[in-house]
């Protein structure tokens, strides 16, 4: 039987890049989201509400996917609500699909908050893992919606007999509009604003992140690992870290990014200077930039997530990801991190998101 993929959250950074990869590899590909917007070539777009089983049953009528990829989540006011809502959306989908008896594999995308803690306790003193983070490091004692989602998948797998994989990317770099966590586009908008105002890009994070080692995950690399794990027997029923494969220091990359935009930059100077504070009140400026340059997205909130960028860049430790587990099993994809950012910036410019 031909592989048939259902990408849950197909309009986001992870989901849209995964959908493109699946189509390129010849899969029958369905993409589900609440509000399908930009069409993806070769993807059958479905509209459905993950918190409404009737909506899901209607969206999936006559569709029997062999592989399901969860690449979305819904941000709530606190971790208790994150757990309730984000475990429910996974459970609802798997309950609806259970009746079809078609699913052979389910993949879940989570992230390094598995090791660093949920938003409310993220990378706090006393909650700092040994780095590089490895998949065999156990769960933290803090409640975490990633753990709740995993447990739902594990329970459904035991019930329905499918295999599973869990994927833990570092910060995902890729193109998407309306995404909840989007460091690459946030930095592109910030650099664009700095250039228009004649200001330098000011490093918003911690000393440790500025001078320590780091890595990120290109959305295209994540997509390749998701497909690899779904089709590799040795990768079944396991969790995998996923990053580009190189490491870098922000104290060099920050200036490289500023050079790409043709502006000056400032590094760490004794204190954290949050990006969320720096970008507060720039909506009016962005409206003018959009009008001046004929850009396509005037709603700033659909492009930036400075709160999330501040979380990552403000961590009190260097964070790198151990990829040994998947490497030993044959996953060898690699991506230069500078190119991850520069490819994104070029794409945003071509798509008239930035000038």
UniProtKB/TrEMBL annotation:
**Which positions fall inside the PRISE-like Rossmann-fold domain?**
66-355
Annotated organism of origin: Sphingobacterium psychroaquaticum
Q: Which SUPFAM superfamilies match?
A: NAD(P)-binding Rossmann-fold domains
Q: Which InterPro entries match?
A: NAD(P)-bd_dom_sf (IPR036291), PRISE-like_Rossmann-fold (IPR055222)
**Protein name, per record:** Nucleoside-diphosphate-sugar epimerase
Q: What is the lineage of its organism?
A: Bacteria, Pseudomonadati, Bacteroidota, Sphingobacteriia, Sphingobacteriales
Domain of life of the organism encoding this protein: Bacteria
